[in-house]
User: What shape does this take?
Amino acid sequence: MKKTFDSGSVESICSWMGEHVAHLVPEIEHRAKAELAVEINRMKGERDAIILGHNYMEPALYHLVADVTGDSLELCRKAAVASQQVIVFCGVEFMAETAKIINPSRTVLIPSEKAGCSLAQSITADDVRALKARYPGVPVVTYINTYADVKAETDVCCTSGNAAKVVAALDSDRVIFIPDEYLARNVARETGKTIIFPDDGSNGCGPNTFIGWHGKCEVHELFGVQDITDVRRQFPDAVVLAHPECPPEVVEASDFSGSTSAMIAYVQETDAPHYLLLTECAMADNIVAENPAKELLRMCSHRCPHMAQITLEDTLAALQNLQYEVDVPEEIRIKAKASIDRMLEIG
Assistant: This one.
């Protein structure tokens, strides 16, 4: 992300905000946010810190202070090569854990200790051990949206952007794919596999099968086909992009499905009259700020309550006080890192 303003100047930041986010951030807030951003950017140098910002961060934080922005996979890669002593992860807890797993000698901070994830909370390490005991020898693919102890029970992690590639690399006709039900269903369809769910009473596990789990993202499960139908009735020329965590019927009805970074690239590289993004709302705001000529429809009112916990104020407090440090027990970290390393090797 190329910054076109002086990150140490309140006036320069205010000017940029007036040009790029005036329709998203009230003008009365510009100076206050600019002052916070300037202090955060100053503190980064003082603390030898880098700020990683997920695509779901609110626009002021995403554009004004994040050194690197991206989806889970991109930030995972950047965390792996970060040279700074302090990593401030503006995302949710499992993402900050991943950064710590990869960088055990670094101080990893998360601006809010309440930034959880409904999907990560849907499965435990005990659940994974039970699945492995029920299906011995079947490789476990775990979505990166999970906590460290779950990753530690995993053969290989994946993201929404590389899930199909990870599954193909295993060369196994049976795969335990957890915990996102909708991502599993979408990847199963993409890779030509059937899917079963053990807690539904499915005991058999024949060849070419995914063994899934009923975890869901509390944001993406809210989207339905009717949303697409309603928008297309008014905007028949709209291009609809859906995140793979959306229900399969929503993905089927969309024009494109991909990770948050893939969705951003699609909008930037194509020219459509209107775009509709079926994902967390803040990302559309961030795209508009960088691509003012793009027409993104404003149907979405689905904001992740956990991502929304991360603010400029809390990011500054994290740097000032080195608070909400993320720690992962070494035994778990080593096992979890192996599953992440395998993912990064695959790509």
About this structure: Residues 220-303 form a domain with the Rossmann fold fold (CATH 3.40.50.10800). Residues 30-47 form the longest helix (18 residues).
